Amino acid sequence: MQQVMVVGAGPCGTAILRMLHESPLFLVSFVVDINENAEGMVYAKKLSIPTATDWASVNMESIDVIIEATGYEQVFQEIRKAGQGDFLLIPGNVAYLISELFQEKKILIETLEKQLYKHDLIFNTTNDGMIVIDKRGYIMLFNRSAERMTEKVREDVMGMHIHEVIHNSRLPKILQTNRTEVNKEQVLENGLKIITTRMPLLDEQNEIIGAFAVFKDITEAVDLAEQITDLKEVQTLLEAIIQSSNDAISVVDEEGRGLIINPAYTRITGLSRKEIIGKPATADIYEGDSMHMRVLQTRRPVRGINMRLGPNRKDVIVNVAPVIVDGRLKGSVGVVHDVTEIQQLTAELTRARQIIRTLEAKYTFADIIGKSEGMSLPIEQAKLCAKTPATVLLRGESGTGKELFAHAIHNASDRKYNKFVRVNCATISETLLESELFGYDEGAFTGAKRGGKKGYFEEANNGSIFLDEIGELKGNMQAKLLRVLQENEIVRVGGTTPIPINIRVIAATNINLEKAISDGSFREDLYFRMNQMPIRISPLRNRKEDMKELALHLIQKINQEYGRMIEGISDLAIERLKQYDWPGNVRELENILGRTIIFMKLNETIIEEHHIPDFIESYNQGCKDSPLKKNHLQSENEPLSEQMDRYEYQIIKQALMKNSGNKTNTAKMLGVSVRNLYYKMEKHGLENVDTQ
User: Fold this and answer.
1) Are 53 and 2 in contact (CB under 8 A)?
2) Can you name the residues that pair with 324 across neighbouring β-strands?
3) Distances (CA, A) of 82 to 5, 57, 90
4) Splitting the chain (692 residues) into consecutive groups of 10 residues, what average pLDDT does each group show?
5) Using alpha carbons only, how large is the chain's radius of gyration in Å?
6) How far apart are CA 577 and CA 593, in angstroms?
7) What is the pLDDT of residue 692?
8) pTM over 0.90
9) What is the dihedral of CA 313, 319, 320, 324, to 10 degrees?
10) Quick one: CA dihedral 27, 30, 33, 36, positive or negative?
11) Three-class SS of residue 440?
12) Strands 129-134 and 88-90
């Protein structure tokens, strides 16, 4: 510590004395002035600092610094000539400069103190709470409003981390993100609800040095806002929603005058804002009554009203609802749907569904209903073959669910994430079938697309193709299909280059392929190539124990399609359904149940026996005089399926004999297709029966 002697205790010396006394680096050992009552002398005596009236009387051996502050050059020269001790002599002008700097410092400090006082006054008199944290999250400022709202004492929280005081504070998050958060709700630990704005504090280099939060108590304001609904605020909110909506919207006041329309309304109706705003609600109507006026009169919404609006006579569907605030009618809101757009969307949806139905398999084995022996066996066979690449041949009468099995096999295979293409060979004309199946090259025929076109086999590459009604293929197409199955490649129509493919073929037919082979209408080699994994699906008449489960499943499907809420079917109704032979199988059962549900009353939820159409009585009446009745009592102990098979055998045999073996006339008489008749004849061994 440097020992200092101040010579001269006037204003300059006094200022230097004060400055040195406050510094821990200097120790004032003597103050010298010829006037003992000088300001500096009095101040020194208060501080117990030794004083003298003559600097020469002071022992200066221990003095490190002498400051000459008298302002007289003669005194400075005398002290310098004396040269007693090893000290630093500072002249008066330098001392004066130091004094002036000290005075400026003092004034600056006083000014800052005044500013801090003003700031502190502002911080502590505002009703908004204010908290400032440094970049480490420690509290630097905490005003009185913050004390009041948080119920914390300022002296206790200063220097604490913000999370120790307000555990859910997001000020540290502001330090991380350097983003301002405006008007955010927050609930303090004492349950007080506040609205707060948080922002980062940055220095001149845009470096974050802390964060600041200002917040206010909004509990009372929120309670009040929840009780009061202002129509102007509702209108502002409605305008924001309306202007951004793609639906055409119009709003009228309680008198029916136009208040708001959006751009979509102008686009659909062709009417401008000037033609609607402030005008009667009937101004936009070309044909029909004003739904706004009806709603204002009845206070009830209207929906799905067909109208024509504007000079373009636009066909639209209108929904209008009243606007009621605190029980008072304030107007109505109308939403207008362009029928043209709806029709276009419906057409696009239909096309999309067609594409999806073509390229994707919809059903799984869970969708195949039936636990009877006649159904469980083909299901197990299908599950086994689904895991292999083998060609599957599904056989069964029309309506038994062959396509359902094809979907399920694809979805259970390792190809389920690839395409599933369905082709009905009977619905495509013979001239187009080849190009549809195998595709064609550019210029293959008149009207061919530029660049050619892929066929179904190429579309199904790496997936599965379902060939329904395979027995309808002609001889040349059968030969080409055989090549595809053997070589795993196709050649487009008009092309010469084989295209390799990797597909799983699932075929289906309801005709007697063996009979077709003997007639020469189906290739034997193709039959053996496709018959790797044959699956025969039982007709409904042979598995009537599945009738109830099937009926319940179909009822749920029909409910979705028809918008009904039928809950089930009674046991008596099931027994009545079992009396029928179901030549159309499950497809016919679905049609009958659909017809039944259509004619049921809306308040009826269970299908009863009397709901079943009268076709069963007609069926039984037609069989009343049949020779089947003769053996009825003798076969009561036989299973129903065996009795039905025997009855079917006798009916078909009797019809064949009556028509002298003519298959076409027999099929017409029985009301079945010729293919179905061949299948039944094969089943019952009637191919070579004597019809004479």
Assistant:
1) no
2) 329
3) 15, 12, 14
4) 86 82 82 88 89 84 84 81 73 69 71 62 77 91 89 89 91 92 89 90 88 82 57 67 79 88 85 86 80 89 85 84 87 85 72 57 86 89 91 90 92 89 86 87 74 86 92 89 90 88 92 87 90 90 90 90 88 90 88 89 89 65 47 53 78 84 84 82 73 54
5) 51
6) 10
7) 52
8) no
9) -160
10) positive
11) strand
12) unpaired
| Amino acid type, 513 | L
Amino acid identity for residue 547 in this structure: M
The pLDDT value recorded for residue 210 is 92
User: DSSP per residue over 150-197, as a string?
Assistant: HT--HHHHTTSBHHHH-TT--HHHHHHH---EEEEEEE-TTS-EEEEE
What are the strands, taking DSSP E only, across 254-353?
Answer: 258-261, 285-287, 302-309, 314-325, 328-338
Report how far apart, in Å, the C-alpha atoms of 114 and of each of 103, 117, 456, 481 are.
16, 5, 91, 102
CB 410 within 8 A of CB 506: yes
Let me know: does 565 contact 559? Beta carbons within 8 Å.
Answer: yes
SS3 252: strand
Residue with tokens 């007693």: 84
109: exposed, middle or buried (C-beta count within 10 Å: 0-12, 13-18, 19+)? exposed
Q: What sign does the CA torsion over 629, 634, 637, 639 have?
A: negative
For residue 290 the two structure tokens come to: 């004003």
Of all helices (H) and strands (E), which one includes residue 606?
strand 606-607
With H, G, I as helix, E, B as strand and everything else as coil, classify residue 644. Answer: helix
Residue 235 tokens, joined: 């209108």
Q: How far apart are the first and last CA of the chain?
A: 145
| CA–CA dist 52, 41 (Å, integer) | 9
Query: How far apart are the C-alpha atoms of 453 and 439, rounded to whole Å?
Result: 5
Q: Specify the amino acid at residue 167.
A: H
Structural tokens at position 464 = 């599965």
DSSP-derived pairing of the beta strands 248-253 and 258-261: antiparallel
- Reduced to 3 DSSP states, what percent helix, strand and coil does the chain have, rounded to the nearest 5? 45, 20, 35
Q: What is the number of other CB atoms lying within 10 angstroms of the CB of residue 121?
A: 10
Residue 576 · residue 610 · CB < 8 Å: no
Q: Which two tokens stand for residue 75?
A: 């005194």
In this predicted structure, what is the pLDDT of residue 632?
A: 45
User: Measured between alpha carbons, how far is 59 from 286 in angstroms, rounded to an integer?
Assistant: 118
In Å, how far are 342, 363, 546 from 387, measured between CA atoms?
44, 17, 27
Q: Which burial class, exposed, middle or buried, applies to 190 when counting CB atoms under 10 A from its CB (0-12, 13-18, 19+)? A: exposed
Please, which residues have CB within 8 angstroms of residue 378's CB and are 6 or more apart in sequence?
405, 535, 536, 537, 538
Per-residue confidence (pLDDT) for residue 572, from 0 to 100? 92
Distances (CA, A) of 460 to 95, 208, 356, 554: 103, 62, 13, 31
